[in-house]
Amino acid sequence: VQLVESGGGLVQPGGSLRLSCAASGLSFKDYHMTWFRQGPGKERELVAAIGKDGISTLHVDSVKGRFTISRDFVKKAVYLQMNSLKPEDTAVYYCGAAWKWADIWDMKNHNYSGLGTQVTVSS
Question: What is the mean pLDDT of residues 32-38?
Fold first, then answer.
């Protein structure tokens, strides 16, 4: 099983990025998918989650209205569109797959996770 994140980079405050996570080796439709992030000196935190149905979504308060999670069942991919980026969004962003919705809050309870992609928001 592999979850491979891409799309990170350096962006100015107010800019946008779209992160992608390509999944392989797992039954993609059977997992809730998540994005986590870990900033410098901070704990890893949930950013957004999307259900197996592709419709149910959750975005934490700090990114609501700015970030949008989505998934493509044909491409077996999950995306995170990030707009109006702020310096405090700087972090390594990780993609995760969880069998149970109750497990989305803690990446330690996920079935699978990727190696991350760096996002830096700075002028």
Answer: 98
